[in-house]
Amino acid sequence: MSAPLWPAPTATEPVRATVSLPGSKSVTNRALLLAALADGPGTVRLALRSRDADLMADALRALGATMTPSNESASSVDWAITPGPVTGGARIDVGLAGTVMRFVPPMAALGDGEVFFDGDPHARKRPMGTILGALRALGADVDNDALPFTVRGPLTGGEVTLDASGSSQFLSGLLLTAARFEKGVTVRHAGPPIPSQPHIQMTVQMLREHGVRVDDSEPDVWRVEPGPIGARDFTVEPDLSNAAPFLCAAMVTGGTVTIPGWPAATTQPGDQLRRLLADMGASVERTPGGLAVSGTGRVTGIEADLRDVAELTPTIAALAALADSPSRISGVAHIRGHETDRLAALVAEINGLGGDASETDDGLEIRPRPLHGGVFHSYDDHRMATAGAVLGLAVPGVQVENIATTGKTLPEFATMWADMLEGPR
Ligand SMILES: O=C(O)C1=C[C@@H](OP(=O)(O)O)[C@@H](O)[C@H](O)C1
Ligand SMILES: C=C(OP(=O)(O)O)C(=O)O
């Protein structure tokens, strides 16, 4: 059966809206894991509720944590979390969530029982060998180099060298649990540059906020001391990467979108939207109501190395396809291993609407030209789906396949998009 098509709304006037976003996926899934590994009961407030966050909560429960929700809404929840001894015998569904498939196996290796991992069909194609090899080197038994696999601990920890150029999550995954390894861990990266550096800073900062000693003073080396992970009452920031399609709507329609609660300082890569969108012609302002982005309806092409903010690529590419000059995006070869091969998918779908995009070794070249309507395939990728929505604002007749896939990180996307277009009531 083919997936349903969502007629992407075309904007008839400049959008003027305030859009409140639920919690960050990346912060939520780190905070939940750290709470489940902590030295006592803790709380994670304003946690995201979405497919990826629910899969993380289920995984932690399966490994022995007690997770009690309160103040639940469709996309937000407060969790009270009581850690337990890590139990074996669990079967973990990782879905298509990079944070679950890379962050949970090191925790599973704390126990001495077998833990089985599997996920969506495409999850079996996402790179896993680097982190599974590292777990083996640190003392765990792991029976495969990709999903599905079984992990059996306990591991002792110690020193390991790996190549994290394929995903920062290999490194983050090891660091998040490492304080609970008998010897802690020293991880050395050897290889081309690691992408998504802000996500590594997020890992290090959140570990420190939970009382873990992390030494990252030497380039490409991280040392986590063995010791307790402190229980906390932790509040999650809004998801700034999920702000991207809404802020693009302000630019494409010549309107203004305000995001309340934009943090003054943050490790989220989405914060770099302030710079990227300004480079593409937006005016960006912190106001008492939040971060306000205004556009003129004209978008300028961009030359940008997006290595640090790789997850923003689909949205920036959609915006670039609507620009009045060419764009060149570099530094993102590794997003061929994201939810789908994002470089191939963006080229196919932009060109399917009459555009002119091509792949380079490590990115995309996009030469804008008039687009026409058609089906925009989403490949079970939330950010492909929202990229299609951005194009649909300016191009009548765009139909996005399976808009529900946005539930990976933003379950209410379609309603929020409609509300934004309707404007203040
Ligand atoms: O640690 C994280 O929360 C993430 C790290 C990044 O992964 P890559 O390093 O594979 O790009 C990012 O793209 C992903 O959306 C979330
Ligand atoms: C790459 C992404 O997700 P994941 O956490 O599954 O890697 C993303 O959200 O853009």
UniProtKB/TrEMBL annotation:
* Record bears the keyword Protease: no
Q: Which residues form the active site?
A: E311
The record, for InterPro entries, names: Enolpyruvate_Tfrase_dom, Enolpyruvate_Tfrase_sf, EPSP_synthase, EPSP_synthase_CS, RNA3'P_cycl/enolpyr_Trfase_a/b
Cite the annotated pathway: Metabolic intermediate biosynthesis; chorismate biosynthesis; chorismate from D-erythrose 4-phosphate and phosphoenolpyruvate: step 6/7
Presence of keyword Amino-acid biosynthesis: yes
- EC number of this enzyme: 2.5.1.19
**Reaction catalysed by this enzyme:** 3-phosphoshikimate + phosphoenolpyruvate = 5-O-(1-carboxyvinyl)-3-phosphoshikimate + phosphate
PANTHER family per the record?
A: AROM/DEHYDROQUINATE SYNTHASE (PTHR21090), PENTAFUNCTIONAL AROM POLYPEPTIDE (PTHR21090:SF5)
Tell me which HAMAP family the record gives: EPSP_synth
On assembly, the entry states: Monomer.
**This protein's name:** 3-phosphoshikimate 1-carboxyvinyltransferase
Protein's organism: Streptosporangium brasiliense
Lineage at the top is: Bacteria, Bacillati, Actinomycetota, Actinomycetes, Streptosporangiales
Gene name for this UniProt entry: aroA
